């Protein structure tokens, strides 16, 4: 248990008081004592006032003084000490002071439920079943509601049972929930109470078992953690603690719970057993206004049984008269009361019968399943109060987090729920992360589109999360000047989402349209909308904004896809279970899973950068992996159902997610498993071929077609219809729109000039309208879905029943040179030509005059740099620096930039004839990279690409080993240079020699002439001091570098190959998307002719800007579908999602059924063994009968061998344990009798083995391998006398008895 800081309560004597008697009033039964229970000398005032009054009142006859007993009680509990806070206070103390003490100084949280337990105070025994029923119910309540449980705190009766029930969870699992078991006991009744006197003391309290305490005083229970000792100035008298207890309960019941529909803290009374005072207490609870529900445990005895009997049978006046005598007799016999007192308590039982609707009887023997649990009954009784509205009942179940109560008690009442009531409850359930309640409310028909509004979503983002919430750190990154208790806005959330998506995705919260809607909603301007505007809102029309853009007012108030917004909210606030629930509901499940995965991964990276706990980062990574698996399962399920629709699902533009595709979101989230899925690979292979249809040897066909263009006519191309089903870039999409618009305008112009008559003009106008609709339908059917339900009939205007329409010559040429595979070979061939010319330039002599080869290389590099600028402009991102950041994620782009700048720098140096050699050196270094860049081309290959991936992985790993190698290399190099050349002057050559020779020593060049050079002889240099150290240090250096580091590097490379080789193909498949996208957006002409393409692109851009139509286009490949076609895709996705959930639930049920079947089989096996074991005694009896019959036949006329005297208790099942020793003594006694019988008979004939042949049959028993049977069998074969066998069994039985009784093998042997 957590130690309390008692320093906060060291001034409790200034707030709380105690009471002491100041007037001595003689007790009528004892003249030496006052009514307070003390004699004259025991009063605090040695000369107290005497009074002849006939009654004693603590209010008038006592005085208040500062309390002198508070602190911490230490109970010895096994190896640990249990602590409990205590305080002595007057019975009429202010309850607000008591609540402040409990919540502020003792650190308790306000409860969500208060259970006041009353019952037997003396020692009594509860049945084990009832005790477990009580324990499980109270523990469940304590875990879910953080209830305060009030008892009398004594070590006896029901308080001891309650404390024992909660003790198992007190010090471990409920430490954070602050389990509160509060004992309110009378101060004057405490045993050894004088030891508790002291201010802020920590005292060791001697805990006595209630059964060992014979004193009338009470002993404290060590199972409680808080004690309030009520003091009214009396000694050895009780009852006043109930006054304090009732006042405290009423004060707690007036406190409002923290919720939207503010309701008071509920109170319930639990009755277990009890005395006459318990009956009186129950009457007080049910008669007050509002009444407190009472739960009575059936079968606990005494007062509980009387109350239950009264509620069940004393229902009418007639029955009450008939049962009056029986009840009166029961009260007198049970409590030994007089006639008058019995009449009083009978009247109280009649009141209980009248108010039986407030008394709830519970029993562990109920057959109602979970509804009979004690926790369910206690909470359910509180929900059945008439003074509570259904909305408050629902709110209580939400506070308690008991969805079973809400389902069984609240929603089954057939209450007509209003939308506002359910919406408020849904808001609380979301804010408190009650996943089951949200699911229940969705089942009850809550419309989330009407529920989720901008203010509510913003409130959810500002709600406190029970789990670790990383949102504060994320907002702090985008709002550096964030103040304390800053309220997040949706604009901040939009910036956070943009940051986490790494600039490739723009949140809708960052758009101008949303900003205007947000401003209008938060300023409540929609209240003053004009009637015409209101009508447009109801008709879901749009309203023109200030800048000409349109704004959907209805969408401004509520979100069209609320589950999308709630999923993002749940992910950002780290509510993983809620996020999975939002993923299962609504549309666009695949996109939601990919968004969640990407956000979780980015949040894990941010958490690691912010030095959060390692558990937080690991939790976020696990959440990302879980959503990755969910997305993969959904794609796989869709692929099995319809692969064509799955491909279109991956590539259709999602308007609600910044018009991104699921495939692009998977790339942003780096989901290698999804990109390597067959659906994605089929799509990428189709995109790589473009308009070509060459399944066999496509590379050879493309290369030959490039070398001999007439071959293009012989290639196989896709039809017009198939091309329309392929994803396209945004530029191609708008090009088709412009083309169709021009065709329509041209047809209008021709129709207007050819028809001048008014009658004919009407017919021609109809023709034009039909052409417009046909053209618009063609545009809207780009990426059409032909396999969804009845979509074939809708696609008939496009495809009809006609054969596929072949492409024209112009279209074939365009599709050939626009295919990514063609662009790849064009650029690759141009690159090898550039590399050949560059190599030629470097290998020959460089003249002062620039020749054609240098001009070609320069033009290639310059145009390549222009292509890099175009790539940056076409990269996804809102701002330029974000585009550069995304573009720089590729290492090839950074290396290309460095190589281009290096070449341009060398070219400018080359212009000066004096420094041409230096420029050639830079050229020579620069060309190394251009040769290494061939790996980028080779990575496109399915066979070489994975190897290139492993190569770069090796390179990254080797970089760390180079750092380790440099440590030893520089260490030995400096030592060697300083030792062998002590007279060197400071030159660059000395610095070079530090690393030059030690590095090449790694490869076997040891420079032997310098290791042990001759010196000191005539004509030679003098020997350097310490030169003999060089070979020794070099040996250590070579051991560390060659033997240790290099072999370690080889081992690491081997480990990397083993781990990465199986996934290398998957990594290549993931990178294939970027390759396809790069070549899809690349110009058809390679450098240096690419300048022509750049000029055309720039001209188109200026033309579009001049017409104010479009800006820069998105280069990603998408299917642009109209709303109707998109709905068909969503329907297919939803259907697959439902099937997936059903399949998962079915698999879970099958797994549970398999587990149950396995358990049943194990139980059958155990039952079979038990049955076999139970038949063992009868088998032994039969064998004994065989022995007796044999002995009778051998010894006719002599005394029968008294084997029948063996105790048959031995032959019973091993369940008998207490009689084992007695049975052993009987066995010894019977063996002695057998000895006496044998002495009188001829024992020689008894040694015949055949006389005990029945024993040999035991060898075929199931226990033949046991030790005892093996020994018996061996002894029988040797002709051992049966008496000797019995004598030999006795020590074996004595040896086995401490283990747990007779061994089954012994019984079998007997």
Secondary-structure blueprint:
Layout: E1 17-21, E2 23-25, E3 49-51, H1 58-61, E4 62-66, E5 69-77, E6 80-90, H2 95-105, E7 114-119, H3 128-145, E8 148-151, H4 158-167, E9 180-186, E10 198-205, E11 226-231, H5 240-253, E12 267-272, H6 276-287, E13 294-297, H7 303-313, H8 317-335, H9 339-354, E14 359-362, H10 374-383, H11 390-400, H12 403-410, H13 419-431, H14 435-443, H15 448-451, H16 454-461, H17 471-478, H18 490-500, H19 512-522, H20 531-538, E15 542-544, E16 550-552, H21 553-557, H22 562-572, H23 576-584, H24 589-609, H25 614-641, H26 643-651, H27 662-668, H28 672-675, H29 678-689, H30 698-707, H31 720-724, H32 730-754, H33 758-780, H34 791-794, H35 809-818, H36 820-843, H37 852-874, H38 880-887, H39 891-910, H40 916-932, H41 934-938, H42 944-980, H43 988-1001, H44 1008-1011, H45 1029-1081, H46 1090-1106, H47 1123-1174, H48 1176-1194, H49 1220-1240, H50 1267-1277, H51 1282-1300, H52 1304-1309
Parallel strand pairs: 2-3, 5-10, 6-11, 7-8, 7-12, 8-9, 9-11, 12-13, 13-14
Antiparallel strand pairs: 1-4, 5-6, 15-16
Helix pairs in contact: 2-5, 3-4, 6-9, 7-9, 8-9, 11-12, 11-13, 13-14, 17-18, 22-23, 22-24, 24-25, 24-27, 25-26, 25-47, 26-29, 29-45, 30-36, 32-33, 36-37, 36-40, 36-45, 37-38, 37-39, 39-40, 42-43, 42-45, 49-51
């Amino acid at each position: 248990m957590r130690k309390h800081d008692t320093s906060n309560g060291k001034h409790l004597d200034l707030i709380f008081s105690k009471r002491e008697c100041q007037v001595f009033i003689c007790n009528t039964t004892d003249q030496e004592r006052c009514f307070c229970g003390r004699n004259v000398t025991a009063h605090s005032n040695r000369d107290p006032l005497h009074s002849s009054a006939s009654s004693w009142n603590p209010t008038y006859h006592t005085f208040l003084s500062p309390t002198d007993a508070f602190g911490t009680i230490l109970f010895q509990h096994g190896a640990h000490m249990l602590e409990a806070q205590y305080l002595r206070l007057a019975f009429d103390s202010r309850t607000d002071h008591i609540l402040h003490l409990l919540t502020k100084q003792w650190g308790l949280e306000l409860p969500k439920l208060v259970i006041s337990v009353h019952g037997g105070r003396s020692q009594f025994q509860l049945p084990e079943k009832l005790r477990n029923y009580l324990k499980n119910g109270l523990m469940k309540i304590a875990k879910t509601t953080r209830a305060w449980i009030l008892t009398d705190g004594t070590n006896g009766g029901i308080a001891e049972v309650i404390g024992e029930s909660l003790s198992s969870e007190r010090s471990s699992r409920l430490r954070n929930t602050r389990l509160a078991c509060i004992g309110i006991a009378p101060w004057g009744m405490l045993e050894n109470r004088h030891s508790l006197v002291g201010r802020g003391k920590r005292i060791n309290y001697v805990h006595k078992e209630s059964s060992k305490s014979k004193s009338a005083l009470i002993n404290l229970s060590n199972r409680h953690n808080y004690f309030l000792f009520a003091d009214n100035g009396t000694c050895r008298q009780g009852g006043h603690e109930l006054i304090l207890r009732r006042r405290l309960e009423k004060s707690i019941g007036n406190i409002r719970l923290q919720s939207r529909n503010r309701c008071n803290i509920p109170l319930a009374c639990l009755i277990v057993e009890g005395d006459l005072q318990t009956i009186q207490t129950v009457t007080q609870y049910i008669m007050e206004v509002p009444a407190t529900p009472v739960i009575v445990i059936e079968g606990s005895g005494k007062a509980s049984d009387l109350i239950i009997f009264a509620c069940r049978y004393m229902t009418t006046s007639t029955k009450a008269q008939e049962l009056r005598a029986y009840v009166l007799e029961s009260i007198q016999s049970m409590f030994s009361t007089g006639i008058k007192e019995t009449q009083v308590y009978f009247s109280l039982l009649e009141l209980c019968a009248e108010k039986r609707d407030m008394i709830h009887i519970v029993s562990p023997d109920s057959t109602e399943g979970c509804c009979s649990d004690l926790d369910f009954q206690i909470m359910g009784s509180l929900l059945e109060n008439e003074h509570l509205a259904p909305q408050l009942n629902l709110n209580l179940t939400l506070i308690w987090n008991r969805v079973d109560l809400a389902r069984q008690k609240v929603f089954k009442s057939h209450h007509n729920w209003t939308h506002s009531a359910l919406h408020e409850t849904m808001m609380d359930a979301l804010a408190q992360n009650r996943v089951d309640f949200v699911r229940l409310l969705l089942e009850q028909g809550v419309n989330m589109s009407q529920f989720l509004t901008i203010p509510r979503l913003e409130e959810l983002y500002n709600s406190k999360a029970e789990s670790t919430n990383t949102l504060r750190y994320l907002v702090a990154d985008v709002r550096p000047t964030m103040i304390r208790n800053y309220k997040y806005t949706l604009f901040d959330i939009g910036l956070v989402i943009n940051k986490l998506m790494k600039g490739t995705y723009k949140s809708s919260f960052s758009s101008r349209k949303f900003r205007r809607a947000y401003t209008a909603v938060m300023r409540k301007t929609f209240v003053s909308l004009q009637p015409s505007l209101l009508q447009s809102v109801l008709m879901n029309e749009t309203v023109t904004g200030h800048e000409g853009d349109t704004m959907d007012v209805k969408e401004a108030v509520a979100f069209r896809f609320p589950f999308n917004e709630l999923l993002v909210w749940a992910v950002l606030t780290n509510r993983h279970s809620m996020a999975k629930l939002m993923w299962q509901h609504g549309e666009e499940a695949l996109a939601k899973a990919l968004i969640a995965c990407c956000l979780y991964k980015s949040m894990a990276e941010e958490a690691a950068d912010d030095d959060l706990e390692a558990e937080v980062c690991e939790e976020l990574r696990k959440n990302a992996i879980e959503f990755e698996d969910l997305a993969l399962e959904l794609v796989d399920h869709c692929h099995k159902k319809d692969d064509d629709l799955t491909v279109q699902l991956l590539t259709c533009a999602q308007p609600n997610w910044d018009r991104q595709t699921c495939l692009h979101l998977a790339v942003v989230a780096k989901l290698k498993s999804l990109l390597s899925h067959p659906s994605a690979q089929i799509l990428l292979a189709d995109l790589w071929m473009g308009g070509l249809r060459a399944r066999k040897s496509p590379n050879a066909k493309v290369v030959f077609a490039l070398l001999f263009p007439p071959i293009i006519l012989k290639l196989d191309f896709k039809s017009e219809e198939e091309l329309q089903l392929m994803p396209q870039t945004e530029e191609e999409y708008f090009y088709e729109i412009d083309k169709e618009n021009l065709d329509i305008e041209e047809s209008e112009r021709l129709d207007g000039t050819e028809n001048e008559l008014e009658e004919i003009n009407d017919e021609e106008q109809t023709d034009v309208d039909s052409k417009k609709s046909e053209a618009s339908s063609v545009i809207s059917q780009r990426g059409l879905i032909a396999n969804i339900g009845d979509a074939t009939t809708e696609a008939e205007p496009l495809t009809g029943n006609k054969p596929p329409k072949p492409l024209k010559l112009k279209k074939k040429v365009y599709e050939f040179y626009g295919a990514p595979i063609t662009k790849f070979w064009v650029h690759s061939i141009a690159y090898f030509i550039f590399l050949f010319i560059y190599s030629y330039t470097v290998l020959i002599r460089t003249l002062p005059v620039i020749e054609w080869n240098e001009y070609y290389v320069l033009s290639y590099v310059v145009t390549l740099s222009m292509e890099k600028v175009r790539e940056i402009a076409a990269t996804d991102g809102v701002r330029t620096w974000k585009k550069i950041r995304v573009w720089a994620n590729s290492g090839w782009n950074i290396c290309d930039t460095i190589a281009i700048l290096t070449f341009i720098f060398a070219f400018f140096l080359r212009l000066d004839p004096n420094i041409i050699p230096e420029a050639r050196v830079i050229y020579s270094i620069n060309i190394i990279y251009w040769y290494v860049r061939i790996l980028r081309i080779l990575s496109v290959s399915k066979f070489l690409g994975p190897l290139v991936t492993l190569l770069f992985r090796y390179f990254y790993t080797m970089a760390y080993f180079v750092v380790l190698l440099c440590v030893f290399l520089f260490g030995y190099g400096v030592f060697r240079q300083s030792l062998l050349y002590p007279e060197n002057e400071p030159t660059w050559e000395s610095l070079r020699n530090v690393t030059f020779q030690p590095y090449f020593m790694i490869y076997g060049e040891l420079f032997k002439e310098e290791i042990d050079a001759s010196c000191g002889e005539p004509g030679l240099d003098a020997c350097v001091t310490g030169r003999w150290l060089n070979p020794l240090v070099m040996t250590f250096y070579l051991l560390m570098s060659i033997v240790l580091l290099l072999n370690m590097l080889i081992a690491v490379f081997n480990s990397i190959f083993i781990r990465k080789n199986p996934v290398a193909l998957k990594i290549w498949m993931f990178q294939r998307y970027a390759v396809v996208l790069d070549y899809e957006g690349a110009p058809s002409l390679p450098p240096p002719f690419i300048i022509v393409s750049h000029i055309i692109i720039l001209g188109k851009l200026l033309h579009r800007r001049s017409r104010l139509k479009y800006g820069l286009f998105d280069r990603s490949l998408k299917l642009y579908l109209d709303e109707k076609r998109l709905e068909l895709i969503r329907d297919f996705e939803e259907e697959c999602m439902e099937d997936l959930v059903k399949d998962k639930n079915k698999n879970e049920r099958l797994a549970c059924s398999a587990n149950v079947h396995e358990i049943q089989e194990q139980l059958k096996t155990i039952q079979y063994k038990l049955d076999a074991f139970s038949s063992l005694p009868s088998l032994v009896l039969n064998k004994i009968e065989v022995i007796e019959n044999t002995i009778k036949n051998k010894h006719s006329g002599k005394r029968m061998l008294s084997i029948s005297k063996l105790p048959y208790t031995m032959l019973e099942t091993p369940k008998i344990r207490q009689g084992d020793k007695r049975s052993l003594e009987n066995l010894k006694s019977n063996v002695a009798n057998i000895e006496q019988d044998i002495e009188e008979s001829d024992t020689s004939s008894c040694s015949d083995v055949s006389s005990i042949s029945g024993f040999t049959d035991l060898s075929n028993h199931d226990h033949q391998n046991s030790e005892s049977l093996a020994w018996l069998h061996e002894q029988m074969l040797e002709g051992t006398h049966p008496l000797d066998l019995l004598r030999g069994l006795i020590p074996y039985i004595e040896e086995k008895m401490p283990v747990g009784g007779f061994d089954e093998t012994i019984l079998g042997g007997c």
